Each structure stands twice: as structure tokens, then as C-alpha cells.
Task: structure prediction
Amino acid sequence: LSFQSVHDPMQVPFEYMQNVCRYRDKTRFLYSAMVSSMDAAMDKIVRSLKATGQYDNTIIVFTSDNGGAVSIGGSNYPLRGTKGTLYEGGTRTIGFLHSPLLTKKSYVYRNLMHAVDWLPTLLTAAGHPGSASDTDGVDHWPAFNKGTGVPRDEIVYNIKEYPFMSALRYGNYKLIWGSQSRKNEQYQTKEDVLNQLACTALQGNRSRSSRMLTGPNDIGSQHTLDTFTLGVDEDRNIWNQNEALENLQILDNEIEDIRRKSPIKEHGFRKKSSEKSRFSKRKSVRNQLKRKGRKHNRKHEKTMKGKSSRKNGKSQKKSGTFNHLRRFTNKNGVKINPWGQAILYNLKDDPTEEKDISAENPDIVELLKDRIITHFDNLVPRFAPPDTLAGLPSRWGGVYSPGWCEPKYI
Result:
């Protein structure tokens, strides 16, 4: 199921507003009520599965596509950023797996996992292991049930050609490289309660009763909706910001071309003979990162920091395997133009991304840049067709439908 909640527009059946504490910030209040509405919908699903005898053979996955949009009541605190950014607040989401079929239960799974991993994982759970081996996803089902093993050690957050924007995590290290969002704060959650006594009483009653405020047979029935119009289009804000960053990048490139007094020709990323010794060291760093990064221990961080080249007691940034300032066209015809700042975080020691450690770890920065460029070589041309009203519920029996989509073959 693809829930429209929790998402703008800010709309929620009136009865669910009685199920949450009332905050001074109306946006956060309505957002909380929308979460309560979604909880009730999930309760209906579980009750129906049990009533029809399907529950014991069902796997329930709760997941999301991005972090909360703080401008419409979402909260990612204490993580940094909001929807549309490459910080953890914009990309890391909550989730859970629930099923009688699991052999190991009631624990927190701390391995890296990407949305594309659900396909091979659930196919294995359904008895078809290895049937999605030609996809980008990796299978977590054995790790889920044993609580051991590290199926994935790398996460690609995003790779975007214009504006040049990328982020990648390898082990504990995360590199954000390229255009930087201005929405990079730790946004406080706006939950100033209007009446604390009433809120405490409501929470006590809610904990002792079902959250399902509507009957089991009211699907399709009419509800009184409370709507709050913000005049904020979060997706449009993201598009506008990216357009501004793209224009800035184009202008910066034009200035650089003038400075060099000749147009920059496209170049492939080829290793230079003078870089062979550097490449050998980079390969050593990569192998250590792969071996020790999977164990996520502090000894690994000390080893990696010891690999940074130093001169007069200061870290010196060295050229990587590739010339990361050169433009090139990848194998799919996409033009890539590396541009912008590189920021490095250790997410194990700094999960809220407060300390940039790129200056102290230049070799790790260059290694992760190499990994990003490798992924850029597989980037396919952007395909963003214009908006259409063809999927409106009025045309599909009251529900949104993807049935109008035309396939895009690559």
C-alpha cells in the first residue's frame, strides 16, 4: 500500500484530531493527527489479515522514501536536514519488519539498508533466493533472521548531473560532494503543548484503548475533513533550489573557462603514469576500508587516519586516482561536471553530521570521490515527463493509480 499520509496537503478526518495532543504549531498538530490516521489504517489491515486467516503467512514492511519535510510539520530531529537534502534528516527513515515468519524478533537491525534491497530480501522470504541477482539490491533476509552478517557496506544516497550533487556512504564514512543545500540545520520539533494536563490525560487513555477510532466496515464512508492550507509546495521548493544551484554551477563553469582562456574539452578519467604510486596507496586504503569498515570498530578509524599524508604535521590533500575536476561523458551519454565542496562525516562517531573531517582525512575523501565517479559512469539520462492528471482518483474508482504510466526502457 502507498499511503498518501503522511504528506501534504494537510488533511485529516476530524475524529483523529481528538486522538493527539494539541500543539501551538497547527502544522505539527495536523501532522500528528495524520500519523494517527495512518496508524488506524494499518490496524485495519492487521485485523483483516487475522480475520481472514492470512496473518500467519504475511510479512509486513513499514518503510518510507525520504525524511520528513519540516515546512509541513515533519520532524527529523536530532538528525540534520529535511526532505530534499542529502543529510541524514532528508534521507534516513524509520522502518520495521513484522511477521510470524521471522525466527529472530524484537531487536534493532543496525546494518545499512537501501530501499532497493527490499526486492531481493522479500523474494528470498517468499522462497526465491537469488532471483533478483541482476539488480542493485542485496538480500538481507538471512541477516534479519540470524542477527549477524553485513550484507551491505555501501550506500549511494544520490548522484545527480545538474546541479552536480552526490552523496555516498562506505562503512562509517559519508561524503557529500557538490551543490550544497541551504536547508542544513538541525530543525527543532515544534511540540509546545497548549494544555499539558489534557495532553497527559489523552495519552493515558490512548495507551489503554485501541487507536482505531472508526469501525471495521467503514471503508469508503464519508469523513469530516479538517484541512490546513499552508501555501507551501515542498516539492516545488526543492525544484526551485536545484534550478538555482544549477544556474550557479553553469555560471561558475563559464567563469572558469574564461580564466583558462580556452574552452575545457571533455576528458575521460584515465590514470596518469605519475599517479601510479598514489593509486597503489589508494588501493591499500580501499582494501583496509573494506576489511575493517564492515566491523565498524574504532581501530579502523585510527588506521584510516594514519594513512593521511602529512607534511610538517599538517594533512596534505593529494590527487586521487581520477582527476575529479575534469568534465566527461559517461557510457550512457550523460555529461558529468564535478563541481562544489566535499564534506566528510564519520556517522558512527557523529550521527548528527556536526563535524566535517575532510581536512584530516584527504585519502578517504579521494577514495569516496572515486567511488562516486564510478557510479556516475552508470548514470542513465534523466527522464522526467511532465505532470499529468491521468492518475486522479476520479478516473480510477476513488483511488490514485499508476496504471496510466508509459514504460521507459533503458
Q: What stands out?
A: Confidence is low (pLDDT under 50) at residues 262-279, 292-320. The first strand starts at residue 10 and ends at 13. The two ends are 27 Å apart (CA to CA). Residues 219 and 279 are 62 Å apart (CA to CA).
